[in-house]
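1st attempt posting a full record on here, be nice pls
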Amino acid sequence: MKMLTHLTQGDSTLLINLTNFCIDSFYSFMYREKPLFRKGEFLKSNIYRDHLADNPSLKNIVYEHLILEDEQWLRFINIPLFVACFSMSICFSVDDDKLLEIYPEIWGENSKKIKRIQLENGKELSELFYPEFGEYYIYNSEWESILYRLFEELKPYHFNQFYVEPAIKRFMKHLGDGDESSKVLQLISTMELLLEYDQHDEINHIGQQYSINDEQNLIEKLEIADFDFWDLPPIPQNTLTSLIKGDLVKQKENNWKIPVCKIENISLLKELGVYSHSLTCIKKIENLLKRFENGDYSKIIVP
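the predicted structure (as tokens):
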């Protein structure tokens, strides 16, 4: 709201007009990979006609602060403002019963994504891939994250009870009702977890890849648990040799890739550090679920 007020300099009518422009604009590009339009396409759009064509004051604000353009293309910028206007318009104007229908309409049912993380020069570089033949709703992970967090902030009790809790229950149901070890095995199998190591003086963990479904995605975006495997110990040479003999390792020069999802030996998973981290994730999810079951649907993310 501060940015809206700043841009409109206290003009209440202009503020309403700018908010409505942001809402309609986000609807128009939220399911695109980029907030990008051909200039001619935008100038012929309902958004331009309904909001900007006859409102020079609003048009000046939009073109100065919310749009970049060249001869052919027009790109929306400051996307969090658009997402905020969209989220507030739903959370503050739609009744609770209708929200039950809107939540799944926004995020939909998506195919699994692939998350890859590499350690380069001491920094974690994360990428999210959308396999070509999958079906997806929101292609931009950052927008999706802002949406989740805003709905959880603006409507915590309703959103957590009717959207987050069912998602967590689906996730835990998939892990089964077995003991801790069986849940860990099911988790890393579901994730199709692959770890990457680099061998110099020691065999150190430098990267990972795993598939991520809708429930995992929500869990990560709301910081309920972090499925990224870091701070894993080096692999002893004799352990690596054993994995090589078992045809579980792919080597390229000094680089080793281990499909951890195929390992069922609990002692080996503990030695790799995977078991402990997996169990920590599961416990965090279970603890939140217990809080929900006790009727506490307050905010998950607390500043």
